[in-house]
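Let's sit down with a protein and look at its sequence and fold side by side. Which protein we use is up to you, so please pick one and set it down. Label the sequence line and the structure token line clearly, so we can match residues to local backbone shapes. Go ahead whenever you are ready, and we will take it from there:

***
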Amino acid sequence: MKDSELIAAYDRIAPDPACKQRMLENILNSRPLEAPKAERRRLRGVLLAAACIAAVAALAVGGYAAYEKWTLPEPKVYEVPSNGGVYEIHETAVYTDPARLEMEIPPAQTEEPGKSGGLTDADFIRQGLALLRQVGVMDATPEQLTVVRQENLYWGREEAEILFDQGDIRTSVKFNAETGKFLGLSGIDWQLEGSAACASHAEADALARQYYEALPVEQGYQLIDCEEYDAQYWSYDFCREVEPGVFNQYEMVRISINPVSGRLTGCVVFYVPLLDDHEPGQERISREEAEQIARGCPYVDLEGYTLCSAEIGIGIPNWNFTEYGSGPNHRASDVSRWAWTLIFERPNSEFTDQVQILIDCYTGEILGGDVAK
């Protein structure tokens, strides 16, 4: 029997709410001890049958039939603010009197995410200062600072950002305003003279890992990349390993350091968890099937293009090459997916002419892509 037929059968036998209530009242009001033994056995059989029917109905309504596999949803759209950015600023408050905020810095890390209970500006300031002290940033002081309450339109979340206005280095710390979760920090410095804090690449790597482990972020991620932008700005990516050798770059903590001064100069926390809801035994679509899907897409012309690369990994929808089209004001997806990344190129082109298409490994849907010309 097909799944749809099984669900329909369950639905047909499911009692309506009034029937369920009568069954419950009969069960509660029945007095089997007063009935003859044969009648008690029949009554027990009826009750067991009714219980089985109710259980099956509950499974159909609240379990099997209610569960739906993920499929590419319609993108959520936000209005681009007048400044053309992705932030809608709600409130800006400047503080110059730390005593008024009772600025006694707690020794512990920031409050556990999800238990903020409506954090005030003072709470965020204390958390920000405690976090900075924990990673050795001592020059950010509460003598003058600004707290900005804003909505991140792209990620669809409320944020609280603390800007420390005093000193030569403009340091900031950002939290999720609703959950209290740490989102990142920034404080770029330049060491003009003196000996370097890290004498080797290995020491710089170890310092970046030390900062990662000291921050209130997801632990257990693997270091997969280091980008050396210049002698005093190195960026490290710590990612979740979802399978041996496969990393989700959307579950990542990016740490930047100055290997000369030894300072933590930045951190950005990305958290778009992998949603892997395929059933046991369900096979991923093949490379050939993925290419066929891409070439059959009505929203991109691949005539004259050659498939030059195809890899399975973790991707995030952006809705390009779908019925929804591309858009600068699409909110970010709240999940990432197993996906084929296909790279098509036009051979013998004078300039780079490349199309990247992302296809879900299990649903076969085009999730998005990009064009480089």
